[in-house]
Write the structure tokens for this entry.
Amino acid sequence: MAVISGVNGAVYWNEELTHPALANSITFGEGTTGATDQTITSSTAGGATGKIDFETEGYSVGMLIKVSGATSTGNNRIFTINTVSSGVLTVNEAVTTGTDTGVITFLETEPGYEEMGFYNWATNYKVDLLDTTAFDTSSEGRSYISSITNWTASADKYFLSTGNAINDWLGETVKIRFFLNYVSIPSTSSPSHYYEGNTIVTGIDQGTPVDALITQNIGFQGVGALTLKTKTAAWNTTG
């Protein structure tokens, strides 16, 4: 069995951003550089509330979004964001051009988004035990049965002057993935392995030395199970 070095690890989280759009308000178009620069434009068709300000809503370069509800089936897929502006996304994958009449929904999908600068993470996954020792069995030592699982995690990162959105997440529930082995384009022969779970950000500790990078330690309390997963297909596919 091959060994895995820590350099392959990463921390990704996913706010699961989701935004429905009004019918006839989303236009798919050709970008300036062909198939690697397609556009998805949100307009005020159907009223000003129909426009999605992607920039303000937190969409970021490198994020993957799943589009559903389009009448053109070619546009119901996962796209990789190249650039973001108030009402326009440019994406890496090809689109079927034209204004779509469907009720489109945008959903942030796996693996989520990495705030650059992470250099360490740790998880603590355990199970509570219930004492079932009775008088007639106590001479043999205590007896237990397993109860509810519980997990916590922490991650260390360099402080970034921009895009440091996790400061706004204290007390919020987000989906997080701790990668044992992150592969940008997973395959059967080169898969990604990661732990995934919902978590509440419980604390953000910051260190500010005079002679080193400003760092942050982030604490997480798990909500529900922490699941070990394997990804063997590209992130912009559903496999």
Q: What stands out?
A: DSSP finds one helix and 14 strands in the chain.
